[in-house]
Amino acid sequence: MPSAAKRPCSVPRCPNLIDRGALYNRCPEHARAYDLQRGSPQERGYTSTWAKVSKSWRLRFPLCGMRRDGQLHPEHSQCVQEGRFTPAECTDHIVSMKNGGAQYAEENLQSLCLRCNNRKRVTHDGGFAR
Fold it and tell me: 2 Cβ partners below 8 Å, 6+ apart?
């Protein structure tokens, strides 16, 4: 079975081609540099305590777009906007911690699928050096 066509690294002027699904859509060299600049998850505050909180949150609010009121909110969830019921894969901070959001405050948490979380990170949270 033929593999999918490679695509360019997302770093401007990088000549390297990568497989679909590569880490951060970057070649290994640029992915490693991005990790060093970004800091480890531990350095960004994602500890074992956060992992427990996140897992508990997703058990209580299992669908993409759910917040503490139990309702589906379309603001950051394309799934809700399109009327899809998608299982949540992560717990997201509505206001990112680097932008002053509280890490454990329930009013700052929502459940998102990975696709919606990545979209929010890029468009709202300053992802990809915005």
Answer: none
